[in-house]
Amino acid sequence: MPSDATEMNRNDSEERKRDETRHKHQTEPLEARSESEKRMRYLSTTILAAALGAGCSSAAGRASAPTTTHGSRPHAHESSPPHESHGAGAHHHAFADADAWTKVLDDPARDDWQRPSEVLRVLELEPAMTVADVGAGTGYFSVRLARAVPRGEVIATDIEPDMVRFLNERARREDLRNLRAIQGTHSASGLAARNVDRILVVHVWHHLGDRNAYARDLAAALKPGGRVIVVDFQLSAHRGPPAEMRVAPESVVAALESAGLSASVSPVVLPDQYIVEAHQRP
User: What pLDDT was estimated at residue 252?
Assistant: First the structure.
């Protein structure tokens, strides 16, 4: 029969084991959460770098949630930003949760490679111009455009109702009375004919199905002397959509010229992106 001392030692040993088990169960979730947070931070960074979509901004659409990746580098359009199909031959996402996507598309880290000030310089804006941001998403460019044309107007279009809702609320929240968002479709921007001086299309072109038809839609929206600026990912980019989804700048030029515009690749080069400029022919 075990002695009292033996029984006490056994109880102490069992208690120590229980303490060790409790400690392990308490610390493992913290470590797991730490790993999970690291993965989420990495994912957000890579999605932003690619998606931009934005991110992709989406004149024609975006990804279902900020968790989709394209190969080793996701594409968020915008800012960069993930993808959906916008009609035949296109790639489609459903960027339905604007409140979640703004953390990706409007991340200040995007500025380092998106270079928004350089894009705005290419637009050559004047204070009273009417400007369209096609595929505006959560408004990364829209709010900058609104501040650049204080006596003008910015019309932001997106196919996602929640993006339109979010951006109209953002305009009110930031007191940008010259900014309004409207809903477009997969095949049309939603812009009225002969209504805008400048159209900015960022990280949208590779989403489009019938690019020639979309180019005609944009050309019809221009006022006399108006211009279209398309920003998209280079074929050799280290971020953005998968290689098979990318569109060569020459293809963008051809689509815009088929719509009756004079188009060319801009000498301004962004990290991993090109700019195509188009204007009405005399």
Answer: 98
